[in-house]
Write a structure and sequence with these properties.
Layout lengths: L1 H15 L4 E10 L9 E5 L4 E3 L4 H17 L3 E6 L10 E5 L7 E9 L3 E6 L3 H12 L2 E7 L5 H7 L5 E4 L3 H7 L3 E4 L6 H9 L5 E4 L3 H13 L4 H5 L14 H17 L12 E4 L3 E4 L6 E2 L2 E2 L11 H4 L13
Parallel strand pairs: 4-5, 7-8, 7-10, 8-9, 10-11
Antiparallel strand pairs: 1-2, 1-6, 2-3, 4-6, 12-13, 14-15
Helix pairs in contact: 3-9
Length: 326
């Protein structure tokens, strides 16, 4: 019982830290075996094993399987046996054992992957929609707002968020150790918020803004002393090109990119990072066209409209603050 308590305690530690691991459980034994049904072990991504699921033959099989299930995020039932002629049932992966004891072990190996932690900076409409959508596909959501709103009010506004912060407390935000950061301030303190994001250790930072606006802020960030590599790593516009129009669809495009990144899928081949820009939430402009569509109304003279966001054309429409514009 003590060993099992240690294993569960270690599993809780790894989960809290967001570290993926595999749990191996012996589900059946035949003949002589040093492990019994119910025996467990934790296997980390580097192959480190804690617990007992049998001797050397079974351990090597479990470690090899653990690395596969972690990579594929799918469980696997294996059989470690010295009987080479044994008929293996469908769905069971066999491993031949050279152990002289001749025992057989069926071991279930399952990946335990903690929720990816998504930190949303800002309380814009896109931020609200992203919080709602991302929690449905397994992200742990944290939200920090630039607005001086009580944490209680903010929490009620972002239902489903694990934690909300009123203002940017760098130490508190750093403790989250986010896997992904989305800057969704949309004119409400963009430049300051980008600095908060860059001060983190997060590798994935995306900015909800037009390319033109993002480029201007990136230039300011470089001038302020942030490394070129770090600044250029900011993804902007955020999301993948799906022709998004309005906050909900923009949030969906961002979520698609987050899922791709979480799964390790390269979406860089999707042409420019965004082939569309949204103007005042209901106008979508394709950068290959001269005429955008706005609910059936043609808007002329916007050949380069893909470079303009609603913040740049109509600052009041999304809360742009003076002094922190494009």
């Amino acid at each position: 019982m003590l060993d099992e308590q240690i294993i569960f305690a270690r599993a809780a530690e790894l989960t809290a830290a967001g570290t993926p691991f595999a749990m191996a459980t012996v589900v059946r034994t035949e003949s002589l075996s040093s492990a019994k049904a119910g025996s467990k072990a934790i296997i980390e991504a580097d192959g480190k094993i804690q617990g007992w699921i049998g001797g050397g033959c079974s351990q090597s099989a479990v470690i090899k399987t653990a690395k596969i299930v972690l990579a594929e995020n799918k469980p696997c039932l294996i059989r470690v046996s010295a009987n080479k002629a044994e008929v293996i049932e469908q769905g069971v992966t066999p491993f031949v054992s050279s152990c002289y004891s001749g025992g057989t072990l069926d071991i279930f190996v399952e990946p335990i992957i903690a929720k990816s932690r998504l930190l949303i900076l800002g309380s814009s409409p896109v931020a609200h929609h992203l919080c709602d959508l991302a929690q449905r596909v397994g992200f742990a959501i944290f939200v920090a707002s630039t607005k001086t709103t009580s944490v209680k009010t903010l929490g009620a506004s972002f239902l489903g968020a694990e934690q909300t912060f009123s203002g940017f407390n760098q130490q508190a935000l750093g403790a989250i150790n986010p896997n992904f950061i989305i800057v969704a301030t949309q004119g409400d303190g963009d430049f300051t918020t980008l600095q908060v994001a860059l001060e983190s250790e997060c590798d994935y930072i995306a900015f909800v803004a037009s390319r033109k606006k993002a480029d201007k802020h990136k230039m300011r960030l470089r001038d302020k002393g942030y490394s070129v590599e770090r600044v250029d790593g900011i993804l902007a516009p955020a999301g993948i090109p799906i022709g998004a129009s309005g906050p909900a669809e923009i949030a969906l495009s961002i979520l698609a990119d987050l899922i791709a990144a979480r799964r390790g899928v390269d979406v860089s081949g999707l042409s420019v990072r965004h082939e569309t820009a949204t103007i005042c939430s209901n106008t979508t402009v394709n950068n290959t066209l001269d005429t955008p569509v706005n609910n059936g109304t043609e808007l002329q003279g916007l050949t380069s409209a893909v470079e303009k966001s609603c913040c740049e054309q109509e600052p009041q429409c999304c809360g742009q603050q003076s002094g922190d514009g494009p």
